[in-house]
Design brief:
The chain has 2 domains: 45 residues, no CATH class; 74 residues, no CATH class. The chain has 6 helices and 7 strands, in the order E-E-H-E-E-E-E-H-H-H-E-H-H. The protein has a 3-stranded antiparallel sheet with strand order 2-1-3, with no helix packed on it. A two-stranded antiparallel ribbon has the order 4-5. It has a two-stranded antiparallel ribbon with strand order 6-7. The two termini are 44 Å apart.
């Protein structure tokens, strides 16, 4: 039978043992899906939340454009760039038209995000989505 080895309310390991040995060790009977990292509170096992996706530092420009299209924001990019003051407008236009990648930390992203209604969390989600396209 499977038993969970628990320290401070968290499963640190799972072992197969006989009931007497497991009882001697203080191990708890565990369902088949329990694994290290699960919580054990008040006699119940709980799976940990899924890990947060890693926000990529950059994505290819075509991925960025596809993600903006999916989010319904692509059409607003040209207007957002046109609204920038010179020479930032011209620099943003060159980057938008000719860059092969978009960096999450770039000036272009920082300039366009507010005009597109994107806060940091929305930008992170957009980059995560873009990295899958």
């Amino acid at each position: 039978m499977r038993y969970a080895i628990i320290e401070n309310g968290v499963v640190v390991n799972v072992a197969v043992a006989d009931e007497a040995y497991a009882a001697e060790q203080g191990w708890m009977a565990a369902p088949d899906d329990v694994s290290p990292g699960w919580a054990y509170v008040n006699g119940a096992f709980t799976a940990p939340p899924p890990p947060k996706p890693v926000v990529p530092a950059s994505v290819a420009m075509h991925q960025a454009r596809l993600a903006l299209l999916q989010a319904g924001k692509l059409a607003a990019v040209d207007a957002a760039i046109a609204a920038l003051p010179s020479p930032a407008k011209e620099a943003a236009q060159i980057e938008w038209e000719y860059a092969t990648e978009v960096k999450r930390s770039s000036t272009l992203v920082a300039q366009l995000a507010p005009a597109l209604g994107l806060d940091d969390a929305a930008l992170d989600a957009l980059f995560v989505t873009a990295s899958t396209l």
